[in-house]
Design brief:
Radius of gyration: 22 Å
Number of helices: 2
Shape: rod-shaped
Strand content: under 5%
Number of strands: 0
Largest sheet: none
Number of domains: 1
Length: about 80
């Protein structure tokens, strides 16, 4: 008994390749850009840029926004 290879079996490797290309050429650079921009925001506010690594944590962006919104910025302090 011969089995026919359907279009699903042929398309599957191309879908995997498309996903890999999507991740490495669109999603990863966008994530790195977001990390860089948050690093700059925290640096300009007077905090350590390492606070931007909070985006790796669940609800990290919310935590970062709360830090920026409700704390006294070191650059805003009067000498």
């Amino acid at each position: 008994m011969l089995s026919c290879v359907g279009p699903e079996a042929i398309a599957a490797p191309f879908m995997v390749l498309f996903f890999i290309l999507l991740v490495f050429f669109i999603i990863l650079p966008a994530f790195l850009l977001k990390l860089f921009l948050w690093w700059r925001v925290f640096s300009k506010a007077g905090y350590s840029g390492a606070f931007s690594l909070l985006i790796l944590a669940p609800f990290g962006t919310l935590i970062m926004l709360c830090i920026l919104a409700f704390s006294q910025w070191p650059t805003a302090k009067k000498p």
